[in-house]
Amino acid sequence: MGNGTEEDYNFVFKVVLIGESGVGKTNLLSRFTRNEFSHDSRTTIGVEFSTRTVMLGTAAVKAQIWDTAGLERYRAITSAYYRGAVGALLVFDLTKHHTYAVVERWLKELYDHAEATIVVMLVGNKSDLTQAREVPSDEARMFAENNGLLFLETSALDSTNVELAFETVLKEIFAKVSKQRQNSTRTNAITLGSAQAGQEPGPGEKRACCISL
Amino acid sequence: MAQSLGEDLVQDDSSSLGSDSELSGPGPYRQADRYGFIGGSSAEPGPGHPPADLIRQREMKWVEMTSHWEKTMSRRYKKVKMQCRKGIPSALRARCWPLLCGAHVYQENSPDTYQELAKAPGDPQWMETISRDLHRQFPLHEMFVSPQGHGQQGLLQVLKAYTLYRPEQGYCQAQGPVAAVLLMHLPPEEAFWCLVQICELYLPGYYGPHMESVRLDAEVFMALLRRLLPRVHKHLQQVGVGPLLYLPEWFLCLFARSLPFPTVLRVWDAFLSEGVKVLFRVGLTLVRLALGTAEQRLACPGLLETLGALRAIPPAQLQEEVFMSQPPDEPRPPRRKPQTRGKTFHGFLTWSKGPPLTGPPRSHRSSTSFSDTRF
């Protein structure tokens, strides 16, 4: 498989970060991929990317995370970003109720543009700001359960649950993929993301196996 | 002139990546560079900048041109254009930008408008979004470090004023960096009218609720790529990199977050004089610098590598003189007989030869109102 480069991986999973502007998507991403946090992280215009490879059992999974702009008008240009995503973190700011109130709209947006089997986690970010909480945990958890979503509260600032959130989503995707593979007599691997249109891998690059659920 | 200068200066790669504050590195205790970026590296006019006597000469030209601006624009626009391409001397940008974009006309015609808008209370919804973004624009620029500083306060005033001036348009986050760069050079009122002109005259439909013109121009950009850089176009298609993955930030922010700051200013000089085509030229040049050779494309077998390459062009190549004197890209020769009706392309950033790509000096979308108000 791999050819000894710094990154060998068995799977590439595309995960999108969505949610209102200012809820902390960019910092969740930088905390997960670079262990960094910035109060002044610049506004996301369009889309940003980052990757991190994690081990799930014996499999190396490369998480390809797309961080999208949250302001409503960007939806006109961001719908293209959902294509091929197998996971999503729908983030709200648990100190600002209005970012939670629109979660349903984001879900619809997601299901309109992504595949129906996408693994979605509802993420209440900024759990470090305990005094300012406006969204009760139970309420959000209930909503997640009723809508078949995973749920966690995180803090990109103090790192609480950030690893866990991404890993849970990746594991869930991995489980789905494994199940799908078992059910399939033939490996049902469809390239996505990096090799979506390119069916001709470059020399020595035939190492990634991207999965579409 | 610019070209020969640029050729001698390739070694100098000390240009500040100050426009991208995250690349400038930390440094609250460090001095600001000559553009105001704390810890930026453009502290002195180094070999990357024209010699002092040349700057002086250009300043004199600009003083002369701006002393009777309307006449200059109506009779000697070509000269203005060429001078803009060479770069407006930094001492004169504050005077020239409002003149170039026509903001001064609006300001003269509505002398009280900005003050009224600045005093009026803003729509709470927009105020909240704008306030949340204030500290996220160029946080390492000395003007924008402090929440109470004139940078962030000016930004709040100007962006709020725009949402009151055009309530149906509201606020788009990409206006933040644009307004911030304007405020680095202009007082809030001038900056406001320049922002109005950029949003309504130069790039109508870019920042509105549906951003339809960005999507349209992304398609146009792809068509240009197909024609001018066909191999790169094919590569981008193969790896699934559509223009919406990289172009919105470039165009919406007028490259303010994507190029070293001295180069940003040069691009803006040309943009304010010639309009949106400059954005296309710069964008095409960036794509070519990142993916123009077969080796470069081979090193980018996938989507992420390709997008990474578009964001990781060596700073030396983006240094202002080097970048602004990029050689022309020739379209592929026609397969059969030469076409006589098609336009000839003379490169993206080098304009010295051949006829201009477009005729009148105006934004590609605006028509009558442009000439009415500007010239």
From TrEMBL, chain A:
Topological type in the membrane? Lipid-anchor
Q: Which UniProt keywords apply?
A: GTP-binding, Lipoprotein, Membrane, Nucleotide-binding, Prenylation
Task: Please name the SMART domains in this protein's record.
Answer: RAB, RAN, RAS, RHO
Is the keyword Isomerase in the record? no
Q: Where in the cell is it found?
A: Cell projection, Pseudopodium membrane; Endomembrane system
Per the record, its GO cellular-component terms are: endomembrane system; pseudopodium membrane
State the oligomer form and interacting partners. Interacts (GTP-bound form) with RAB11FIP1, RAB11FIP2, RAB11FIP3 and RAB11FIP4. Interacts (via the hypervariable C-terminal region) with ITGB1 (via the cytoplasmic region); the interaction is GTP-dependent. Interacts with ITGAV. Associates with the integrin alpha-V/beta-1 heterodimer. Interacts with VPS33B.
Similarity comment: Belongs to the small GTPase superfamily. Rab family.
Known NCBIfam families for this protein?
small_GTP
UniProt-recorded name of the protein: Ras-related protein Rab-25
From TrEMBL, chain B:
Top-level taxon: Eukaryota
State whether keyword Endoplasmic reticulum applies.
no
PROSITE patterns named among the record's database cross-references: TBC_RABGAP
Give start-end positions of Polar residues composition bias: 366-375
Which InterPro entries does the record associate with it? Rab-GAP-TBC_dom, Rab-GAP_TBC_sf, Rab_GAP_TBC_domain
Pfam families found in the cross-reference section: RabGAP-TBC (PF00566)
Which regions are flagged for Basic residues bias? 334-344
Task: For the region Disordered, give the residue spans.
Answer: 1-53, 324-375
Sequence ranges assigned to domain Rab-GAP TBC in this UniProt record? 87-275
What keywords appear on the UniProt entry? GTPase activation
Q: Where is the composition biased (Low complexity)?
A: 12-28
Q: Which GO terms describe its molecular function?
A: GTPase activator activity; small GTPase binding
Record's protein name: Carabin
Q: Record's Gene Ontology CC terms?
A: plasma membrane
